[in-house]
Write a structure and sequence with these properties.
The protein has 333 residues and is of the alpha/beta class. It has nine helices and 13 strands. Helix content is 32%, strand content 19%. Helix 2 crosses helix 3 and helix 2 crosses helix 7.
């Protein structure tokens, strides 16, 4: 029997889950187009949401699209739908980053791979970036192991930095943050993606309430979205002395690898939520080629670094805005 057509409500729910993913500066650089005729959902990158200063290669854009793709796969598995995914299916159309053919499930026991994805579904709406101080409690090995395995499921390496390498990476993060603040073009680009919620009700970008406090010690590893501006009433707080940072790496460094890295990143983050962890990112040195190269030192591991993730126990971050599903989804006959 032919598969039953997916109703529009289900499609909108799938895409609503997909766009809960993180993206660079919360730019949400994606658009979806569904064709009922072949039950295929196409994921396209939106070029007008690129960041030519901080992300000229569009590596970060692809990582964000990959995270949305993982959420889509999780949502499909949760609803018993097969999701046959193809990355970069049309070389002549690089904005078409993936297609997902949504088939009906077998109706029997859920395969273990699909069950593992489906189990992540409750974490999609609970995952938020937390730019607050974390406490000093160490993440135990029996929690670190599933995070590493989550990335491995997507063909990507994920490893926590050992103590003797942590300070080196923190230095690179702070150097990159300083470079950003001294580069007028980059600061202007970042300011374009921040939102003053006293003046607008945003649907994208980083709202001022999500900036988090400044580090009273000056050692913070979070990106300061306020830049050189002063935010009235912004809190000061002491952050952890030894943050628990992990590097996410791929064997190669092509657009398909960036998409895999994004899927691995989101799978790690959803797994972290289910284990009671919160997370933020320290991508600044990845956006300066000379600093990213230093992250490839043999003592830090092999492969190409795609993300620096800070994990730990602490307050959950606030929910940041998302564009309406109707703005990012087109449904064709």
């Amino acid at each position: 029997m032919p598969a039953q057509p997916l109703d529009d409500t289900t499609l909108k729910t799938l895409v609503a889950d997909a766009i809960a993913a993180p993206s660079m500066h919360n730019a949400q650089p994606w658009r979806f187009r569904y064709r009922h005729a072949d039950r295929t959902l196409a994921l396209r990158a939106e070029s007008d949401r690129e960041m030519p200063e901080a992300d000229p290669s569009t590596r970060g854009l692809h990582v964000g699209c990959g995270a949305a793709l993982l959420n889509l796969r999780v949502s499909a598995s949760h609803r018993g739908l097969d999701a046959v995914t193809t990355l970069l299916p049309v070389p002549a159309d690089p904005d078409l980053v993936a297609t997902v053919r949504l088939g009906e499930g077998p109706g029997g026991p859920v395969p273990p791979t699909d069950a593992a994805l489906a189990a992540l579904h409750p974490a999609i709406r609970r995952r938020h970036t937390s730019r607050y101080p974390f406490d000093d409690r160490m993440i135990p090995d029996d929690v670190r192991a599933p995070l590493t395995e989550a990335a491995h499921c997507e063909g990507v390496e994920f490893a926590f930095l050992p103590t003797d390498h942590l300070e080196r990476v923190l230095v690179l993060i702070r150097e990159a943050e300083g470079f950003d603040l001294s580069d007028p073009a980059r600061e202007a680009e970042q300011r374009y993606w921040t939102r003053d919620t006293r003046a607008e009700a945003p649907v994208d970008g980083v709202p001022d309430y999500a900036f988090g406090p400044t580090d009273a010690s000056g050692r913070a590893m979070n990106r300061d979205f306020a830049g050189t501006d002063i935010v009235p009433g912004r809190a000061h707080a002491l952050f952890e002395d030894r943050p628990q940072l992990a590097l996410l790496r791929t064997a190669r460094d092509r657009p398909a690898d960036w998409l895999r890295a994004g899927q691995a990143l989101e799978r790690v983050l959803l797994t972290a939520v289910l284990h009671g962890l919160v997370a933020s990112f320290a991508t600044q040195p990845l956006e300066w080629p000379e600093l990213r190269h230093l992250l490839r030192g043999p003592d830090l591991g092999t492969g190409h670094p795609q993300m620096i993730v800070r994990l730990g126990y602490g307050p959950e971050g606030p929910c940041t805005p998302r564009r309406p599903v109707a703005e990012v989804l087109t449904i064709e006959p």
